[in-house]
Amino acid sequence: MNVSNINGTSDNSCNCDSWLDHWKNYSDQTLPTYCQEKSCTKKPEVGAHVQKDSSYDKNWYIIPLCSEHNHQTHGSLEVVDSVAFVSANTSQTCG
Questions:
Q1: Secondary structure, 3-state, the chain
Q2: For residue 26, how far is the Cα from the chain centroid?
Q3: What's the rounded Cα separation, in Å, for the pair 50 and 55?
Q4: Torsion of CA 2, 48, 67, 28, to 10 degrees
Q5: What is the mean pLDDT of residues 46-71?
């Protein structure tokens, strides 16, 4: 699956201490060993705000990425198929 980073979200916050903690709290998965970009072998450092590259789903999600892939500002990222997409809408989770 391909996703795009949502730029300008660094001021967004939730009640989970960090967006990576938010992902851990609501994904029902353990933190993966690697960034969820398909070919990356770096550790996941942040909970990144992303949108699925689809014409029908415009929701915002959190997935674990390394800092480098979190700061990719153009183009799509191909992520592993097993990644859990956690809603970034805090009214549905920790809000």
A1: CEEEECCCCCCCCCCCCCHHHHHHHHCCCCCCCCCCECCCCCCCCEEEEEEECCCCCCCCEEEEECHHHHCCCCCCEEECCCCCCEECCHHHCCC
A2: 12
A3: 14
A4: -90
A5: 94
Return the higher-pLDDT residue of 10 and 44: 44
Output the six-digit token pair for 42: 């770096």
Number of neighbours of residue 74 by Cβ within 10 angstroms: 7
> What is the pLDDT averaged over residues 62-74?
93
- Mean pLDDT for the stretch of residues 25-35: 97
pLDDT surpasses 90 at 64: yes
Boundaries of every domain in the chain: 2-89
Q: Please give the Cα distance from 89 to 78 (Å, whole number).
A: 23
